[in-house]
Amino acid sequence: MKRKACAEVGIKSFDVDLLEQVSEAELISKVHELNANPDVHGILVQLPLPKHVNEEKVLGEISIEKDVDGFHPLNIGKLAMKGREPLFQLCTAKGCLELLTRSGISIKRKKVVVVGRSNMVGLPVSLLLLKADVTVTVVHSRTPDPETLVREADIVIAAAGQAMMIKGSWTKPGPAVIDVGTNAVDDPSKKSGYRLVGDVDFQEACKVAGWITTVPGGVGPMTVAMLLKNTLDIWCKACDRALRPYLQTKYPAPSDLSCMALPQNIVLRVWQCHCPCNPNACILFLLENLKHTDAFHLLSNTAGF
Amino acid sequence: MKRKACAEVGIKSFDVDLLEQVSEAELISKVHELNANPDVHGILVQLPLPKHVNEEKVLGEISIEKDVDGFHPLNIGKLAMKGREPLFQLCTAKGCLELLTRSGISIKRKKVVVVGRSNMVGLPVSLLLLKADVTVTVVHSRTPDPETLVREADIVIAAAGQAMMIKGSWTKPGPAVIDVGTNAVDDPSKKSGYRLVGDVDFQEACKVAGWITTVPGGVGPMTVAMLLKNTLDIWCKACDRALRPYLQTKYPAPSDLSCMALPQNIVLRVWQCHCPCNPNACILFLLENLKHTDAFHLLSNTAGF
């Protein structure tokens, strides 16, 4: 999906395929090579890595300025702290908030329950929400009574990695339910022998929820869109650095031109439609699209890379 | 209190007093000087800084290996992330957990409400608790109904910086209440004209709580003790680095001697006594003491610093 989305919006992407037996040193040297390549603006190491490779070490070697996933601990620290701004917000976490915002669901003064505390989703989404003045409770595998806590929530973000764990009876009527889970369950009726389901029992929950995302769909494409946006942001910064001396030669007065305005050219469309099992519930769909505007072309023609 | 505690346990401490008009550059150059001084193992910049100085920039200049306060974003990131270990845990946050552990109050499967989300206390204590399998809710100034959430808690950690905000009626019977607040309120009966109170209305809450800390006392001395422990930990690591080559010359076989065992020599005593207004409530007091054991002396005599 990432590859296709990149092609659609005009971001060149390429894969570096390595054998499973690759040594840690070889993998790190590949990361260093990409760090040093000025044509590469974003690096994403597809997880999980083989067991003999130290994941923390490899991720730590990605230049923080190209870490589009935003997994660097320095980035997480800045995400957590009041008054600090991370270089990148983690794609899925950012995507959850974007889905809410674009669906007109206000998070102000809301009680949000995040189910799961993974480095990839649960933790960063809680930190982002806390910074956005939300009252957050994090429910996890060691929480004695998750159901009671979920029932109090105005917004539920399910990121536990447990197929259909959250039943319809777990929520009060009307909350927004964002389902981050993607779990394969056996399904002999499918050619592949399985189908993908979320952490929420959709058939049950859509009868109770006010808003609910689908799996597949919903959070998945939004995460990819956020990855593209992070990549575009880095590219813009690189453009800015490359353009500045050129502009200063041509127009010695300080110029206001900054390509930081470019991300507005990303159009993320959230489609809403009614749920067949509950006419009051809306389902959030998403289509991402990055428009190649004139401004975009102007910059890419002017900058020498 | 910090100065006195250092003297008591045998840690040399000195102050670098600068005028309020000090420039940012001058302050940073002082930090660099201390970073480079091998006799200095821990640096603490006393906050708040004057308004013309960028606090984030100054704190970011402290060598992460001497940042005994643990405020560096990289440290906070590692504190937050599963599978990562921070160089230091933030003193007050670590102190809250230590108070609970040393008082025999299990945090397992408990509901904890943290009131406040400051970089210094609320945020790091929530992150530490989450990592320790606790179900955490963070209540803050924008939470619509803090009282209801506090009433559900088995453990309340009050770090809002609001004098006596948490009333006795806010808690259910029996929780452990850790009061991190230190607020000055007018008191004409005192020579100074004020007295220090916590974020909890102690007189009311001690009739309901199972355990409660006092202000002053409780968290304050424990925070200082944790600062000493962080400093000792750094010193131990420096000893370890200094001793290793010496030991390898004397005893070519790999030696098991590691001064990482030293922190056990810190004795933190938690005294418990009954509260006069509620015989069922215990008050947590604390006295810190770092024993100069033989091992400690052996190392300081052997290492050449």
Automatic annotation (TrEMBL), chains A, B:
Residues in Tetrahydrofolate dehydrogenase/cyclohydrolase catalytic domain copies: 1-69
SUPFAM superfamilies, A to Z: Aminoacid dehydrogenase-like, N-terminal domain (SSF53223), NAD(P)-binding Rossmann-fold domains (SSF51735)
Domain Tetrahydrofolate dehydrogenase/cyclohydrolase NAD(P)-binding stretches: 91-237
Record key words, sorted: Hydrolase, Multifunctional enzyme, NADP, One-carbon metabolism, Oxidoreductase, Photorespiration
A GO term, aspect molecular function: methylenetetrahydrofolate dehydrogenase (NADP+) activity
This protein's pathway: One-carbon metabolism; tetrahydrofolate interconversion
Gene3D superfamilies in UniProt: Leucine Dehydrogenase, chain A, domain 1, NAD(P)-binding Rossmann-like Domain
Transmembrane parts of this sequence: none
CC annotations in GO: cytosol
Membership in a protein family: Belongs to the tetrahydrofolate dehydrogenase/cyclohydrolase family.
Subunit (UniProt): Homodimer.
Protein name per UniProt: Methenyltetrahydrofolate cyclohydrolase
Organism, as annotated: Rubroshorea leprosula
